[in-house]
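#struct-pred

JT: dropping the chains for the assembly here, can someone run the whole complex?
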Amino acid sequence: MGNVAKHTIGVLVDNEAGVLARVIGLFSGRGYNIESLTVAEVDVEKELSRITVVTSGTPMVIEQIKAQLSRLVPVHKVSDLTTDGPSVERELALIKVAGSGEQRVESLRIADIFRARVVDSTSESFVFEMTGSTDKLNAFISLMIPLGLTDVSRTGVVAISRGPNPL
Amino acid sequence: MNQDRMIGSEIVLKALCDQGVEVIFGYPGGAVLPIYDALFQQKELRHILVRHEQAAVHAAEGYARSTGKVGVVLVTSGPGATNAVTGLTDALMDSVPIVCLTGQVPTHLIGNDAFQEADTTGITRPCTKHNYLVRDTDKLARTVHEAFYVARTGRPGPVVVDLPKDILMESGPYFGPTNVEHKTYKPTVKGDADAIRQAVALIGSAKRPLIYYGGGVVNSGSAACQLLTQFVEMTGFPCTSTLMGLGAFPASHPQFLGMVGMHGTCESNWAMHGCDVMINIGARFDDRVTGRLDAFSPGSKKIHIDIDPSSINKNIEVDHAIIGDVAHVLEDMIKFWKAAQARPDKKALKDWWAQIEEWRARDCLRFNQSGKLIKPQYAIQRLYELTKDRETFITTEVGQHQMWAAQYYKFEKPYHWMTSGGLGTMGYGLPAAMGVQVAHPKALVVDIAGEASILMNIQEMSTLAQYRLPVKVFIINNEYMGMVRQWQELMHGGRYSESYSAALPDFVKLAESFGGVGLRATKPEEVDPVIEEMLAADAPVIVDVRVDPAENCFPMIPSGAPHNEMLFGPEDTQATISDEGMVLV
Ligand SMILES: Cc1ncc(C[n+]2csc(CCOP(=O)(O)OP(=O)(O)O)c2C)c(N)n1
Ligand SMILES: [Mg+2]
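RK: done, full complex below.
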């Protein structure tokens, strides 16, 4: 059967009503796992959107997921960014930390090390913006917990292949 | 351009006509009144008024499966659309090309819980191949044409076009069906030549080969069925069919081993278990066929030909996948086979056939018609003998009678066998037969039914009467939901919980009340005369054949068991069924 592994899949779709529901319905209906999913229009003229979905499964399940996605009528292209050559993955998070005194200073210091930017600040809080790999975000967020972490909003992974070629 | 503008409802009908549609199965309601009004004012399209929207879809399925054309359905919004859902799911599971037009509340009311509003595209998303909500009359013609293209190409399936009432009443441009190709949807029909060559080389090295084919061959067309026959004959290999593939290859052919799967023949299932090269042509390794996955055909290399890439490696990992339309792929395979040097070892093939003949000699479908009760197998066998020389189409409901029909009715040609395979929908057979009869007015159309299933769409007797469709309903009346009773007997200690068909109607009077003919057979010697009488009647007929209520359907591979653990008859009913098997359906 093979081992369960994490895969990042890029899907180019017609940006039409219901397309996201089709993709999500496919995952829930067939019992596939979604670790994260992002979507946005990427070509206004051609009305194309790009979905990046992080999922996990055995090699046979991952093949099924790709075949099932390709079968959806509005899907142009499906690419397994984990296996189809090297790729870059990034995620963005907005992280709210409330506190005062030494803790507040400490959070700012760590943010600096992680290259997180302050995008909002009040006398008792910061909102940090941070981009990076999922692991890096996780590391930063766990460091913020004892320093007064109150809220997190994350985009989920977006990914693109390295080199000159498109999806 | 001006002369090509018309109102939405006329655009819809014009598009249907230009798609070659002759018949629509439908039921009216508020949201589709503009279409019904346009229908009233034209003569090209015939409309069959069903008595329930589920039946409209099954009728369209019967029409489609017996003609190879797209079946068309028209229903209203809300309950009309939700009633169609079972039919759509059935068509999706069995890859039947259907275009279903659903009414919808006007666009400005969508989302307001308006009267008879339902989120039809939301509800039908997982049970259609694709669906559309038309929000602009300018896009209407193109959408309808595209729906037909999607429904019939690639692996066929049902497509819903949801039509808000205002879209049907506004005017817009009409475009013909030329150049309607989808931006993204372009199924592969031609198989990869290298993959086919490799498969042919593997076939050439086989010692114990088996060809296993399914509904995909029938869907590919009559040319595909002929090519299959040619391929089977030129290789000299044994072949077996799924429930859906019956008729793609002549049942009387000596190389045909009968149906495979849960209620398939012993020779088919054991050949599947013991083969060394399996050539799957247009079948999908469904769980009714494979039985226990980890014990499925353990020693074989597997070749899989399918037009749907998602069918490959879904249940069973195969060694060679060929994605393409069966007819195209078989054509190439035959070509390469003729050119190839390698041929299976003659001696090995002969030994393999000798082994198969030994299995075949068990005569696993034999039954014993003795005593006063009619055996269900006997009734179907007699039906076959007395109708085989006519142009006969058979549909079924779901249950034991369906499996007996598959076992004892021999299909020589494709397009003559319509049954609900993937979904197993009780209530399928009567409306499907209706659709077949509409397409083939002169032919004999018989629904082999169970007394429980038939009550699920019995209202269609009224449609048969209205359109003088002389469909014959042949009820194998065992007074039980027999298949449920059989599982309860084998797996639940004979506790027949809620599976007795109590308070049955008098089927003879029921037929008469619908303006049809009602007949009954209670003794074996009455079977032939009653069938003759049924055949003589130029009207809808219900035949109530009272059969042995205790009869079970054998052979049987219980859920979760491998092919070599087969039950052959009553003497085997104490078989132990594993805990894993018990949870399976
Ligand atoms: C709509 C639907 N509901 C329930 C079932 C489960 N089911 C499968 S066979 C069967 C019994 C069918 O009884 P009958 O029509 O009398 O056929 P028999 O098995 O007796 O030949 C039932 C309830 C089904 N297949 N379809
Ligand atoms: Mg019954």
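JT: nice. The first helix of chain B runs from residue 8 to 18. The interface with chain A takes residues 121-122, 125-126, 129-131, 133, 135, 150, 182-185, 308-310, 312-314, 317 of chain B (CB under 8 Å).
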